[in-house]
Write a structure and sequence with these properties.
With about 230 residues, the protein is α/β, with parallel strands linked by helices. The protein contains nine helices and eight strands. It is about 40% helix and about 15% strand. The structure holds nicotinamide-adenine-dinucleotide (NAD).
Length: about 230
């Protein structure tokens, strides 16, 4: 129930923004709680294939095990090349970005983004947004649910314009989606309980935040509970 006000409506909205009609290939950047819920929501809304991208093997395997999605580890594989290969050169029909302003990467572009962010020339690192725009097929949809707060650099506007992409983004509309999602939990269509990898007491809160922030010990979500040991 806790996640019906957090990762679930966010992931659902990311998939809802894609306007799926059935049979699409959907790529999701980020295998955190939000990305995992976006992947499952895309399946429920009709995607035929869902491909989840991250670098954390435990998160990728949790998504693959639970939802049967395909996965790409961006630390080991060229994401754009892999997506082209998996879609016969076309690109995914829809791309959901569930990473946000601290998007990470390997290689020189990450050093460039980190440098610009550290010197306050930009506020956000948009690696995964860039990739989503570059990967998406012509006429496809890029749905951004990772949070961005300010300015980004090297935004591929030309690719978005020339491929006639639909860009949708926003803070989730919790109150619109929660009643419908509770019904889906009740019939077992989507069960986000597994995201609560680390139930902890209120006293352990600071450590809980640390574990979540550093993504230690396979943590997807810390849940603070007054009765937890
Ligand atoms: N739009 C909304 O209303 C809303 C609501 C809740 C959360 N959010 C946002 O959604 C985003 C995801 O939330 P979360 O709780 O799942 O976060 P999280 O930190 O648990 O997960 C983010 C994942 O992205 C991965 N990642 C980093 N760089 C990547 C890259 N270049 N390519 C692919 N994966 C990459 C990380 O390894 C991590 O697993 C955050 O920005 C969060 O603030 C948005």
């Amino acid at each position: 129930m806790v996640f019906a006000s957090d990762a679930m409506p966010t992931g659902w909205m990311g998939a809802d923004f894609c306007g799926l009609k059935g049979g699409e290939v959907v790529a999701v950047w980020g295998a955190g709680g939000v990305g995992q819920m976006a992947a499952r929501s895309a399946q429920i809304l009709g995607a035929e294939r869902v491909i989840v991208i991250d670098r954390l093997p435990d998160r990728l395997s949790a998504a693959a095990r639970r939802w049967g999605v395909e996965t790409i580890n961006y630390a080991e594989t060229d994401v754009l090349e892999a997506l082209r290969e998996l879609t016969a050169g076309r690109g995914p029909d829809a791309c959901i970005e569930a990473v946000g302003m601290e998007s990470h990467d390997v290689g020189p572009i990450h050093a460039y983004d980190k440098g610009k962010q550290a010197t306050r020339v930009t506020t956000d690192r948009p690696t995964s947004v860039r990739q989503a725009i570059m990967a998406c097929r012509k006429g496809g949809t890029v749905s951004i649910i990772g949070v961005y707060v300010g300015l980004v650099d090297k935004f591929p506007l030309g690719a978005a314009m020339n491929k006639a992409l639909v860009l949708r983004m926003g803070q989730m509309h919790a109150q619109r989606y929660i009643p419908m999602l509770l019904d889906r939990i009740a019939v077992g269509e989507i069960d986000p309980g597994y995201l609560a990898t680390h139930p902890m007491s209120l006293e352990q809160g600071a450590r809980g935040y640390e574990i979540f922030e550093k993504k230690e010990d396979g943590c997807l979500r810390t849940v603070l509970h007054p009765q937890a040991a």
